[in-house]
# Entry
Amino acid sequence: MNNQWSSPPAGGNGGSDAEVNAHLDGLFHAYRQACADPEPSVNFMPEMWAKIEARQASTTIFNRMAKALVTAALGASVVMGLLSASYTPPPTSANDGSILQALANDHAHDLEPLQIERISELEQQ
Amino acid sequence: MLVEFELLQQAQRGDASAFTQVVTAYRRRILGTISRLIGRPEDVEDVAQEVFLRLYFSLDQLRTPEVFEPWLYRLTVNASYDYLRKSKRRPESRMSDLSEQQVMMADAAAGSKAQTEEGEKHRVRDTVQSLLSSVSEEDRILLTLKEVEGLTLRELEKIYHVSENSLKVRLFRARQRVLKSVKGVTRRRGNSASSDDGL
# Structure
């Protein structure tokens, strides 16, 4: 095995740039040789397929839940639409349909008769 | 490419045996890349399985054969990056600790011709991983892909979807940081050697 990595450039200033660069290249080269591609274990494939199936199962459950949620929301929207379409407000007896009558009914409490006693009280104050 | 595009198309259509063949063709290469990117042998298979899981669920997006390998690399890089980000078990890189460790390892290696080859490999791995811990996860991965995996800038462009110039800048900066660590080690080593001479 290449042993150049174990002898870094000597010297108090850490060696020249070229030397240090060459030393680093040697280190990387030795590292590549020291880390050969490992052999996969016998469980590699079974474990990988188990993970794939687990991920598929969780995705399926999530998809089903999402679909159920969407269906429920659609159903609720349709029911609410039908209800609002079929709803007609009950006619009020005091309202014969004209706008003047409706305004008069709405402000009926403003048109109470004046109370003379109360006005005289105010005048005394 | 290690597999025919027809096989990929079969896998795209949901053929499990075709997908198994694709995984079998690429798994050793992917395992090797991940082992050098994350530096943790015990978790390499987990990360590789995550890569193939992502491949399985996104394979239907593949349209042309030439993008398959850069795409697989991209999935590998993303899964490794996610792993490194999640597992903050890596020791923080402090220059003083790093230097101490490096000095000890370099000294031990220099005076040990009788060391086994396996021991040397172990030390190389420790040394490079310590040096790479002085840069961010992104830069660590980029530097490893370029310097250790030997990918070209053109291949990196396809993986990262960034311009060659910005890749060059990032690589230069990352390398400068690692070089600074190496210089720190050698400076420290030189100082300790001179103080030993003085005694």
